Structure to design on (178 residues):
């Protein structure tokens, strides 16, 4: 069973049909929407400020979400995929965005709707990534615009796949394809 810890009077709120891996940790001022998945060894630490997560967000294995005390918060929209071993520290991620494996997104950065952050990228504090943009590198730089329909389709498919994967852990008769 996942470790869910209240702190400073805040009890994490987990939406319906959300999967929490047995060694995921969710702490403090965290509000998570429905049909999300939080995978193995992930830590969502709302001890020093708030973390708000939309619907159908998948936060993959080994990721860490945290904030700055009284300074930064995390806001994540709907249908967002956060790859394996991602660090998000006090940033805003809009609907249908994809944060690639091993990326770091720092305080007060913003990732626009349908945007893609390439694996291994470091998005510095206060960076603004616009809608439908692909960024990559360390530090992350603009690479190109992506087709909005293609990006949304890809990001929606990944979010739905992770919803399907999560159901394999709770329902032995869950489909293996959507």
């Amino acid at each position: 069973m996942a470790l869910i810890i209240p702190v400073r009077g805040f009890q994490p709120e987990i939406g319906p049909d959300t999967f929490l891996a047995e060694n995921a940790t969710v702490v403090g001022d965290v509000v998570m929407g429905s049909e999300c998945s939080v995978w193995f060894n992930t830590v969502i630490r709302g001890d020093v400020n708030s973390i708000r997560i939309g619907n159908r967000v998948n936060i993959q294995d080994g990721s860490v979400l945290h904030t700055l005390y009284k300074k930064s918060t995390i806001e994540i929209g709907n249908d967002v995929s956060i790859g394996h071993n991602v660090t998000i520290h006090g940033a805003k991620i809009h609907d249908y965005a994809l944060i690639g494996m091993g990326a770091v997104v720092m305080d007060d950065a913003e990732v626009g709707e349908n945007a893609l952050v390439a694996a291994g990228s470091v998005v510095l504090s206060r960076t603004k990534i616009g809608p439908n943009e692909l960024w990559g590198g360390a530090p992350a730089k603009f690479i190109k615009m992506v087709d909005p329909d293609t990006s949304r389709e890809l990001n929606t498919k990944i979010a739905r796949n992770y919803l399907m994967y999560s159901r394999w852990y709770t329902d032995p008769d869950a489909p293996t394809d959507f």
Observations:
- The mean pLDDT is 96.
- The helical segments are 148-168.
- The longest strand covers residues 43-53.
